[in-house]
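Same chain as my last thread, 132 residues:
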Amino acid sequence: MPHGLVLGIFAYILAKIYRFRRTSTLALRQRKTALRRQLAIPPDFLRASYVERFTTCGKANCACARGQKHGPFYYLASGLVPGRVLKFLLKTPAQQHDGQQGVVAYQRLWEGLEELSQINAELLRRGERLAR
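reply #2:
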């Protein structure tokens, strides 16, 4: 990961819009079946943001006062309820790796669920039954 960037893999993402209007009903049903086979809940998924931060300590004679900030420090941040965020430091490289992979696993699961939802909506729009 490049240093100096604040990296956030955000759990709150805008949904990708799938264009299904010109896709045949048979193709939609086949894709739905494939998605349902693929969608397994990963045991290590995390609904959180993976954040890289650089900080200053406030000491006048420190290198950070001249632009060389401390860090990087890696955090996981997760919104629990409006106004409350759980945030904690990932101290070891193993924690950092697991945290980042868990956030990516959640994103993949969410993307699959979103596509499945949009397929179901399109099937309903066409007057099709969902349970098959």
